[in-house]
Amino acid sequence: MRFPEFSGEWKKMTLEHVTDFVKERISTDILTLANYVSTENMKSDFGGITPAISIPNNTNVIHYHKDDVLLSNIRPYLRKVWAANGDGGCSADVFVFRAKSIFPSFLYCIMANDTFINYVMSGAKGVKMPRGDKEQMLKYVFSIPSIEEQSKISRLLHLLDERIATQNKIIEDLKKLNSAIIDRLYENVDGQYYLYGDLLTVVNKKNKTMEYSNVLSASQEFGMIERNDLNIDIKYEKSAITGYKIVREGDYVVHLRSFQGGMAFSQMVGVCSPAYIILRPNDRLSYGYLAPYFTSTSFINSLRLVTYGIRDGRSINVDEWLNMKVRIPSLEVQRHILSIIKIIECKLLNEIRIAEKLLKQRSHLLSQMFI
Fold first, then answer.
1. CA distances from 353 to 168, 347, 349, 359 (A)
2. Which residues contact 282 (CB under 8 A, 6 or more apart)?
3. Which CATH architecture has domain 194-324?
4. What are the angstrom distances between the C-alpha of 132 and each of 106, 152, 238, 276, 322?
5. 164, 358 Cβ separation under 8 angstroms
6. What is one Pfam family matched by this protein (predicted)?
7. Statement: residue 232 has pLDDT above 80
8. pLDDT(145) > 70
9. Residue 202: enclosing H or E segment and its boundaries?
10. Any idea where the domains of the chain sit in the sequence?
11. pLDDT at 230 > cutoff 70
């Protein structure tokens, strides 16, 4: 598929022929949270960047310029690629490519592309945190048209990228609205005080008879999901799941990051790591009522009272937490609260589906243009 005014053959090139791999440095003393880039503040699925949370002190980092293409080299399959819209600095785990004989935005089209990402992953090293091989990347072979055709293709894809960025902004705003509504609904609830231990029971039934073979993992955004859906190759022995715990639909799970994002709600049956703590609700709770509350600001802040350790060693003392109080309304009010939240969540799901379709359109265009 090409624009009708172009007909010449595309030329085969390698990445090292049309780009420079940037090594120049810049002091972090002159950077801001808006122009410092690390793997942490690059968004997956070619989603751009967010402001950094912090900047390293008194050191030099890679200096990128406007129109450079930045690639997160930790777990490249996350598709963190960004076309710089200004000058700044980035960590060493972010590779910077500068166009030298190719239209800059066309270079971004080449790299923000599943074909390129799959090529990078084919040479990646490491299991838990795979990293791409710079020398292999530079040998990536692709075809390019004339500068004029590159410019026209880039403009078309730029329009689509802008639409995707707008859609992502809609999704982010809806998530913020949903969080604000959850905070307000659960803050002002009237009802009776209970200990968490009066509402939830710790269960430890093991998968001894191999009743289930699907392994679930905790996700802060989606609750308990199939481990295969995490897109992380976690190695484990199939026979080991006889010692895994059985999770039922409607259970809540305390996981390693619960002190940051709350408890994970399970809408499916399966097994999970014995490191997780499974909580089963009783009939004082409507199905899923605590799921939104467990992600609320007030609840996560309350966990500080029962969270011990430092950095990644932090964990919740579940016994102490079960002795904390929470106000629970009637079942009718619980269902009403959930119905309000469901309206926003349905809208959010619809917008996510639109975003997924836009990404598929972009991928299809790239494949049809032989990029």
1. 11, 10, 6, 10
2. 199, 200, 201
3. Alpha-Beta Complex (3.90)
4. 22, 30, 29, 32, 45
5. yes
6. Methylase_S
7. no
8. yes
9. strand 200-203
10. 11-144, 194-324
11. no
What is the phi/psi pair of residue 14, to 5°? -110, 160
- Res 32: pLDDT: 95
pLDDT confidence band for 234 (50 / 70 / 90)? low
One fold for 11-144 and 194-324: yes
CB 245 within 8 A of CB 269: no
Whether the pLDDT of residue 313 is over 70: the answer is no
Q: In what order do the strands lie in the sheet with 94-99?
A: 19-21, 94-99, 69-72, 81-83
Average pLDDT over residues 320-345: 96
pTM, two decimals, is 0.76
Rounded Cα distance, 111 and 191, in Å: 55
Confidence label for 319 from pLDDT (cuts 50, 70 and 90): very high
The CATH number corresponding to 11-144 among 3.40.50.150, 3.90.220.20, 3.30.390.10, 3.30.450.70 equals 3.90.220.20
**CB neighbours (10 Å) of residue 144?**
21
- Residue 219 binned pLDDT confidence (cut-offs 50, 70, 90): confident
